[in-house]
Specification:
The protein has about 450 residues and is of the alpha+beta class. Among the domains are: about 120-190 and about 420-435, Dna Ligase, domain 1 (2-Layer Sandwich), CATH 3.30.1490; about 265-325, Actin, Chain A, domain 4 (Alpha-Beta Complex). Helix content is about 35%, strand content about 25%. The protein is built from twelve helices and 18 strands. It has helices at about 1-20, 85-100, 135-145, 195-205, 215-225, 230-235, 265-275, 280-290, 320-345, 370-375, 400-410, 440-444; strands at about 25-30, 35-40, 60-70, 75, 80, 105-110, 120-125, 155-165, 170, 180-195, 210-215, 235-240, 245-250, 255-260, 305, 320, 355-360, 380-385. A five-stranded mixed sheet has the order 3-2-1-6-11, sandwiched between helices. It has a five-stranded mixed sheet with strand order 14-13-12-17-18, with helices on both faces. Helix 5 crosses helix 11 (about 400-410), helix 7 (about 265-275) crosses helix 8 (about 280-290) and helix 9 packs parallel to helix 10. The longest helix has 25 residues, at about 320-345. The chain is globular. The two termini are about 30 Å apart.
Length: about 450
């Protein structure tokens, strides 16, 4: 974990440099859409300009000055599958955003939905050196966490200390300056496959950009879609994307679990294309214009013409009722929601004080999804839109921009991660520990 620790620390330093320069691009690499937001940051106070170390500013005001969206190419299941196509798509999105902003950007921070994320809950305990908790004590307790053996070919993208315990006082978010003798920490590790990360780094560099950070889309979607009460009391954000459905669970305003289902809106479109013998683009338009998940009596009489541009004008036009269309779309969406429910159950979601579920992402706009999700997931469900931020145009306020907006919020007000502290990385353990979220049931 030592090389990863150093690499993440370098990314933190580059991100700080980018913010101090004033302009940063955030890039959401999706299977069907690639979105870029250019952020302009307010310069930090003069007396903070020479701050040493890798610590990020606690909060940075920003406004969106450029937006660029293009159809994604070369991406499957949230991972880059064709480097040249993905590079061209990123260049086009960046160029559109730069044209709107009237400025060039050199630094980009990326979120993606692939990599098969897995969560681990780890814990560590140390004695406080001098009675008062200082940053060195926090570094020591993080270094004493028992890191699980998560296998070869995986990297940690987030290492979040989500709960500190000082003697018998738990639920502390920042124990620095407090008096005590024993300090313990619960830390959430989020790992992904390393190949998708390396491909993203390579692709961004080929676009003449400096990568200044990377995040998982399910995490950033939750930051922008969950309100404060939901993050505090416990809620799940389900980000229905094109190639994957991300899941993130928050409690006490901390990310405590994340996962993904490798199914999304693309698979619904493919079902329509195969079932109705239509071209993919026609099936996508049919889904967008007439799709739904809950049939009514009116849908049996609602006839839809299946346009085929290649068919001769004299040929008889094919038609389908909307209820038949729903009959093709619903089974796939039920499969996705059932997989989501299985992952939430395995994570211990039913032990949280509140169990609200928020649906976001482009797929959440399918009519009838809220009703179907409430039936399958068995909990209160709502459709979530990203938080409004200064300068964000109307076209970027829909659920499909939850990841990009959340990434902007993430870098403007970052949560401390283990590489923000002076940690002897070679002391990290390698013992297998219990599943993530379980310790929240015991300690909170």
């Amino acid at each position: 974990m030592s090389s990863l620790f150093q690499e993440q620390r370098k990314l933190r330093q580059q991100r700080e440099v980018a913010i101090r320069r004033g302009v940063v691009a955030v890039l959401d690499i999706g299977t069907t859409k690639l979105a870029c937001l250019i952020l302009q940051f307010v310069p930090p106070p003069a007396n903070d300009a020479g701050a040493a170390g890798v610590k990020m500013p606690h909060a940075s005001a920003f406004r969106v000055i450029g937006v660029g969206t293009v159809q994604s190419h070369g991406v499957e299941f949230g991972d880059i599958s064709a480097m040249d196509q993905a590079e061209n798509a990123i260049r086009n999105a960046i160029q559109k955003a730069q044209k709107m902003a009237g400025q060039r950007v050199d630094h980009a921070i990326v979120c993606f939905s692939g990599g098969t994320p897995r969560s681990y809950g780890v814990e560590g305990v140390v004695e406080v050196a001098n009675g008062e908790v200082v940053e060195q004590d926090i570094g020591n307790v993080l270094a004493h966490c028992d890191i699980p053996d998560f296998g070869e070919g995986r990297e940690v993208v987030h290492a979040l200390p989500v709960n500190f315990t000082l003697d018998h006082r738990t639920g502390l978010s920042d124990p620095r300056g407090q008096i005590g003798s024993q300090l313990a920490v619960d830390m959430h590790l989020l790992t992904v496959a390393d190949t998708p990360i390396h491909n993203i780094i390579q692709c961004v560099r080929r676009c003449d950009l400096e990568l200044s950070g990377i995040a998982v889309s399910s995490y950033t979607s939750g930051l922008s879609s969950l309100v404060e009460d939901e993050q505090e009391l416990g809620a799940a954000c389900v980000d229905l994307g094109g190639g994957a459905t991300g899941i993130s669970v928050f409690l006490k305003r901390q990310l405590i679990y994340a996962d993904a289902v490798r199914l999304g809106g693309v698979h619904v479109t493919r079902d329509l294309s195969a079932g109705l013998h239509l071209r993919y683009d026609i099936a996508e338009r049919l889904k967008t214009m007439h799709g739904g998940l809950v049939a009514t009596g009116q849908d049996d009489r609602d006839v839809i013409e299946l346009a085929d541009p290649k068919a001769p004008p004299t040929d008889e036009r094919r038609t389908i009722t909307r209820s038949e269309l729903i009959g093709i779309m619903r089974p796939r969406m039920e499969e996705i929601l059932e997989d989501v429910r299985a992952r939430l159950d395995a994570a211990g979601f039913d032990s949280l004080p509140s169990q609200r579920i928020v649906l976001t992402g482009g797929g959440s706009q399918t009519p009838g999804l809220e009703t179907l999700a409430q039936h399958i997931l068995g909990r209160q469900v709502r459709i979530g839109r990203p938080m409004r931020v200064h300068g964000l145009p109307q076209l970027a306020t829909g659920p499909g921009f939850a990841s990009a907006v959340g990434l902007a919020l993430h870098i403007s007000n970052p949560q401390d991660e283990c590489w923000d502290f002076d940690i002897p990385a070679d002391r990290m353990g390698a013992q297998r520990i219990r599943r993530a979220v379980r310790w929240f049931r015991d300690n909170w």
